[in-house]
Amino acid sequence: MQATRSTADQILDEGRRLIMTRGYNGFSYADIADAIGIRKPSIHHHFAAKSDLAIAVVEQSRAIIAAQVELLAEAEPDASEQLRAYAAYWERCIADDSAPFCVAAMLAAELPSLPDDLAVAVRGHFATLTKWLTRLLTLGARQGSVSLVRSPAEEADAFMSAIYGAMLSARAFGEPARFTTITETLLSRVVRLR
Amino acid sequence: MQATRSTADQILDEGRRLIMTRGYNGFSYADIADAIGIRKPSIHHHFAAKSDLAIAVVEQSRAIIAAQVELLAEAEPDASEQLRAYAAYWERCIADDSAPFCVAAMLAAELPSLPDDLAVAVRGHFATLTKWLTRLLTLGARQGSVSLVRSPAEEADAFMSAIYGAMLSARAFGEPARFTTITETLLSRVVRLR
DNA sequence: CTCCATCTACCTATCAGTCGGTAGGCTGCA
DNA sequence: TGCAGCCTACCGACTGATAGGTAGATGGAG
Question: Which positions make up the DNA-binding region (chains A, B) (predicted)?
Answer without folding.
Answer: 28-47
